[in-house]
Amino acid sequence: MFWKRVGGWAAMLCLCTAIDSHTASSVQALTKQRDGALRVGGWTLRCGRARNVLDPYLPNLGLATPGVVVFNPRLLKRWPATVRLFVFYHECGHLHVGASELAADCWGVKQGVRQGWLDRGSLRQICRSFGGGPATPTHPSSARRCASLERCFARATAAIAKERAAATIQGRAAPANAAPKLILGPTLKRSGMQPN
Q1: Rounded Cα–Cα distance for residues 57 and 44 (Å)
Q2: pLDDT for 57-105, tens place per residue?
Q3: To which H or E segment does residue 128 belong?
Q4: Nearest to 89 by CA among 142, 152, 143, 141
Q5: What stretches of 7-141 show up as alpha helix (H) in DSSP?
Q6: CA gyration radius for the chain?
Q7: Which residue ranges make up each domain of the chain?
Q8: Model's pTM, two decimal places?
Q9: Do the Cβ atoms of 11 and 3 come closer than 8 Å?
C-alpha cells in the first residue's frame, strides 16, 4: 500500500489480500529486531533507510508511505514465509517505484529471484494470497497481477542466468551452485631448500 496526497487528503492504497487459514504456515512470525530490522524465516529485512513498523491493528497485510513501511504481523503469520517476504518487498518496492501495484510487485519479484528465496512454487503461493479477487480502485485483479508476476519472474530469472554466465566466462565468479575451482595455481617465489 502506498500513501498518496490527493486534494490535501491522504488516500491509502492497500495491498488487499484474502486470508485463507488453510494455506497458513506456522513458520516464525514477522518480528522486529532491536536495530529496527524485521526478521522473517531467517531473513533480515531492511528497506533502505525506511522505518519498519509492526501494527497488529492494520486492516491489511502491509502499506508503504514515504520513509515508512508498516506490516500487520497478526495477519502475516497466517501465510508462509515466502508470502511474508514478498509482502515486505512489495511494500518496499513502492518506495522505489511509486504507487504502481504491478511495478511494486515486479520489484519484489526481482529481489526474491536475486536473493534466492523466490521460485515457481513460491510464486504460486503469492498468487494464492491475492485470493482470486477482482480489480479494485487501488489494485489490478488477482489474475492480472499473477500474469504480471509470471512475466517479471521469467525476466528476472533470465537476467540472473545471463549475469552468471557472463561472470563465469570472464572468470570473475562461478554460478551460485557450482563448486569452487582454482583459478591461479601456486607461484614459485625462489628455488632452493629452506633451512630448518
Answers
A1: 23
A2: 999 999 999 999 999 999 999 999 999 999 999 999 999 999 999 999 9
A3: helix 120-129
A4: 152
A5: 73-76, 81-97, 101-115, 120-129
A6: 21
A7: 2-169
A8: 0.73
A9: yes
Task: Please state, in angstroms and rounded to a whole number, the distance separating the CA atoms of residues 64 and 118.
Answer: 22
What confidence category does residue 149 fall into, taking pLDDT thresholds of 50, 70 and 90? very high
Torsion angle defined by CA atoms of residues 95, 96, 102 and 105, in that order, rounded to the nearest 10 degrees: -80
**C-alpha cell recorded at residue 89:** 518487498
Distance CA 1, CA 90 (A): 9
Report the sign of the C-alpha dihedral through residues 35, 36, 40, 43, in that order: negative
Strands across the sheet with 43-45, in order? 31-32, 38-40, 43-45
Residues β-bridged to residue 71: 54, 62
Q: For residue 141, which of 3, 18, 10 has the smallest C-alpha distance?
A: 18
Cell 563465469 belongs to 168
